[in-house]
């Protein structure tokens, strides 16, 4: 994706994440595992964040991750979308497990 600027702003506590590609996997015997047999990576880079959600008291709770953070997320987290041919995940910030 490089220097391409995304013109998208997530709402509330949503985050736009680009999956990071995993390296080719090899078994101990030297067999290369094809992409179709592998699970999708659970690591990604934050590309955009929303302003945060509003608490019951009316105060904004900021999103804990920032653009550029490398994160871990759950296997079934988010909704997959395609923007200009690139695949992304939209997820709530609470679906993010850790910042690497």
Describe the structure.
- With 100 residues, this protein is an all-beta fold.
- It has a domain at 14-21 and 41-99: GroES chaperonin (10 Kd Chaperonin, Protein Cpn10, Chain O, Roll).
- Helix content is 0%, strand content 41%.
- It is built from no helices and 10 strands.
- It has strands spanning 14-19, 25-26, 32-33, 43-49, 53-54, 60-61, 70-73, 79-83, 86-92, 96-99.
- It has a 6-stranded antiparallel beta sheet, with no helix packed on it. A two-stranded antiparallel sheet has the order 2-3.
- The chain is globular and about 60 Å long.
CATH topology value of the domain at 14-21 and 41-99: 10 Kd Chaperonin, Protein Cpn10, Chain O
Percent in strands: 35-45%
N- to C-terminal separation? 21 Å
Radius of gyration: 16 Å
Provide the CATH architecture of the domain at 14-21 and 41-99. Answer: Roll
Mean pLDDT reading: 83
Major sheet characteristics: 6 strands, antiparallel
Based on secondary structure, the structural category is mainly beta
CATH superfamily of the domain at 14-21 and 41-99: GroES chaperonin
Helix/strand order: EEEEEEEEEE
Identify the CATH class of the domain at 14-21 and 41-99. Answer: Mainly Beta
Strand order of the largest sheet: 8-9-1-4-7-10
Which word captures the global form?
globular
Distinct helical segment count: 0
Percent helix, as a range, is: under 10%
Uncertain runs are none
- How many strands in all? 10
């Amino acid at each position: 994706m490089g220097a391409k600027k995304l013109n998208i702003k997530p709402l509330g506590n949503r985050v736009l994440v680009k999956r990071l590609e995993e390296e080719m996997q090899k078994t101990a015997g030297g067999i290369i595992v094809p992409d179709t047999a592998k699970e999708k990576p659970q690591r990604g880079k934050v590309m955009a964040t929303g302003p945060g959600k509003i608490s019951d008291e009316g105060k904004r709770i900021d999103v804990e991750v920032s653009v550029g953070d490398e994160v871990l997320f759950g296997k079934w987290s988010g909704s997959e979308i395609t923007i200009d041919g690139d695949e992304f995940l939209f997820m709530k910030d609470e679906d993010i497990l850790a910042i690497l």
